[in-house]
């Protein structure tokens, strides 16, 4: 089946005007399947820290802070854009709205999906979710519980997981 | 250009509602198909634009979709209409497509048992959608069913297999070993056979022959007392379950009889209409047993006062009448052909129905006057 115009246009735009802190690249053999990377928003526990040996030098580059980099996979089904894209985290993340399998609890991925939304808007929503975890509407019940009982400790755990798992691959 | 499919061909047909969000007809159609067919939505389908809460009205919908889809849409619309309205409920009988209207208010449910009959013949309670449970009010039925689901098997088992420690009343299961029991909780030592103090057994260990000893008698009395509430529950539960079971058997009996009646019709020359009295009898047995069943749940929670006796008399009369009818009903075919028995069955049938109504009227009156329950 030929790739619908809508997907072609979206892909083109993702390439030509990428969203800051977000990248989405389709697989060559399956243009409906995207490798996604989202940078943890600054000021959030998912921001990440530079590796020890870079810390000194990093001080000189405060305007480009190191970020936690989260990998996700995104798939556009045949019914897209009538149904939302399928998306999940591949990088382990400690977040009340993301479960062990990386599935995400987000309204625009479920009942608030509209065909007028796009891949870029969804990815922005996910980035925003990283900046504002919502333990009152949890998917990972145990994480949400920690979050409510001792927010500081939960944030510390989230930071720890970020520096452990969400590290950019060395190029 | 259509924002959904990004198509920008010339002459592309598009559609927009008053909100002005314009998309091509094709995308609109796909969108509606998805919503109606896959998500089962109807009355709340919004404009496809993000965050636009304009509902797609029936007229726009008819313009856009195939007649088949708009049929499904109507169906869903009716469903939401009934579901959203407090005075309407779907009949819960299998394959029945009717909705029933009843003006009962939620707060009246402790005083009335709003039983309705659907045109399909199924009778159910409008308050909780369970099958007819007169005379017991919904709240009581809910408690009873929960109690039975939680307790009946457990209670039976406890009654059959355990005893309580004579000192601290902990329930104890003896799953082996000798009769010398030491309570895990209070360390009380007693004999499983006579429930008396172990220390009084002297040298006759492992072979209790001290049934008449005082400590044993006292302990057994205490035991009996603590069993009373359990026995009381089982008393009502067994009768409740018995009527449920019997109603099923009566129904089977009727199906069997019905077959034989067909044979009988050809053998004895009775016409179809002449054997219908058996059908009425079967119906009466079912409904009366249904009512009797619930009188036991009702009685379990009933606080005792002088009205209770009237209720119990009514219950006894109905039960007796039902058992009589049931017995006649089970007679072999050859006897059923007897015209005297036929008259008897017809009389008993109407008597049962009458007793049932009397019982229900009496309880309904008492309920409305604020009957008290021990919940």
UniProtKB/TrEMBL annotation, chain A:
Residues of the active site are 105
Going by the UniProt record, its keywords in alphabetical order are:
ATP-binding, Nucleotide-binding, Transferase, Ubl conjugation pathway
Record's Gene3D superfamilies?
Ubiquitin Conjugating Enzyme
Q: Short name of one Pfam family for this protein?
A: UQ_con
Looking at the record, the residues that make up the UBC core domain are 2-167
Give the domain of life: Eukaryota
Q: Does the keyword Transferase apply?
A: yes
What protein family does this chain belong to? Belongs to the ubiquitin-conjugating enzyme family.
From the Swiss-Prot or TrEMBL record, give the protein name: UBC core domain-containing protein
- The scientific name of the source species is Apiospora hydei
Automatic annotation (TrEMBL), chain B:
Taken from the record, one Pfam family name reads: IBR
| Enzyme Commission number(s) from the entry | 2.3.2.31
Extract the InterPro entries matched here. Ariadne, E3_UB_ligase_RBR, IBR_dom, TRIAD_supradom, Znf_C3HC4_RING-type, Znf_RING, Znf_RING/FYVE/PHD, Znf_RING_CS
- Alphabetic keyword roster: Metal-binding, Repeat, Transferase, Ubl conjugation pathway, Zinc, Zinc-finger
Reaction(s) catalysed (UniProt annotation): [E2 ubiquitin-conjugating enzyme]-S-ubiquitinyl-L-cysteine + [acceptor protein]-L-lysine = [E2 ubiquitin-conjugating enzyme]-L-cysteine + [acceptor protein]-N(6)-ubiquitinyl-L-lysine
At the top of the EC hierarchy, this enzyme's class is transferase
Q: Check the record and name the CDD domains matching this protein.
A: BRcat_RBR_ANKIB1, Rcat_RBR_HHARI-like, RING-HC_RBR_HEL2-like
Residues of the RING-type domain = 1-212, 2-48
Q: Which PANTHER family match?
A: RBR FAMILY RING FINGER AND IBR DOMAIN-CONTAINING
Q: What is this protein called?
A: RBR-type E3 ubiquitin transferase
Protein's organism: Apiospora hydei
